[in-house]
Amino acid sequence: MNLGLKVGFEPASIENIKDVHPDFVEVWFDVRRSGQYNNLFDFLKENKTPAGLHFWGITKDGCEANITYPDKTLNQESFQLMQDTIDIAGRHNCIYVNIHLGTRTKITMDLYNEKANVLTEPADLQTCQETFVHNIGLLSQYAKDRNVILTIETIPQTIYSDWSKDPVLGRQNPIPSYPLPLSTYEPCIRSGAYVANDFGHTVALSITEDPNFAWDTLFETSKSLVQSTKLLHLGFIVPPYNGSDFHDQLDNPLMDTDKAIPNTKHMTELLKLFQNRNDVYALVEPQNDHPKNFRLASKILADAGVRPIQ
Questions:
Q1: What's the rounded Cα separation, in Å, for the pair 44 and 281?
Q2: Which of 90, 117, 133, 240 is deepest in the core (most CB within 10 A)?
């Protein structure tokens, strides 16, 4: 297994790469600001560091890119933003482009002031699934033609209206965004796409008060998708298990308890599903201190026997 580091266009990302020497990096990639990544791409090329791009795109009217919601204008612009990202990935010899499993709602999003809002009621499930699967088929082939892997990431049931605030407080009032169900993966995989399993997001697809149910669901879901999984985000959820997202440090004290799903022991069990998988890429997405979390993840991967500690 390959262990990576989350990076962006900020100069600190280059210093973080120099610090830990990851197997690869995953670039938080806002396609509308693609020119701001030139220094990072030059550094990666010079140092022969492989990269994947985590797609983020905002349409001209301020909506999160969405190839699921049945709005022709939104679909076309979103599709083009994803194609543009795949083109950039191809030019820079990136391993993959990661996009999110779609939502049945239209969402406004401000990536830099960290605010979002759901604009619509959920559209018809079957229509949304058909729209998403059709678009993924086209994007998968487009990526394949450019020697890029397309991965589709699990996403939580809800979003925050303002994630610039304390995430613990933000999680108290999540807004349903109606993501597509995991069954949507089956036709997408047949079309050539792969799975990006964010452990925390996958837990947040279930709303429950029972941590055992949350863990069992995560493990069985991850096991069922293991052969088609190329990317892992080593996230976790703490109470409440209300469908909301949570990005925190791997040394959160709750990681040594049964409250975190997955906790450190669980994460080791999950990673053991990927023995001898050199085609799988894993990383942590903390709010800050990426080098520290890289080292913590390195120990967890070593304990699972999927990568020697370095």
A1: 17
A2: 133
Most distant CA pair in the chain: distance in Å?
Answer: 49
Which residue in the block uniquely carries the two structure tokens 């999110």?
Answer: 100
**Is-above-0.85 flag for pTM?**
yes
Give CA–CA dist 211/209, Å, rounded. Answer: 6
- What would the pLDDT profile of 214-249 be if each residue is shown by its tens digit? 999 999 999 999 999 999 999 999 999 999 988 899
Pairing of strands 158-159, 175-176: antiparallel
Cβ atoms of 286 and 248 closer than 8 Å? yes
Name the phi and psi angles at 232, rounded to 5. Answer: -125, 130
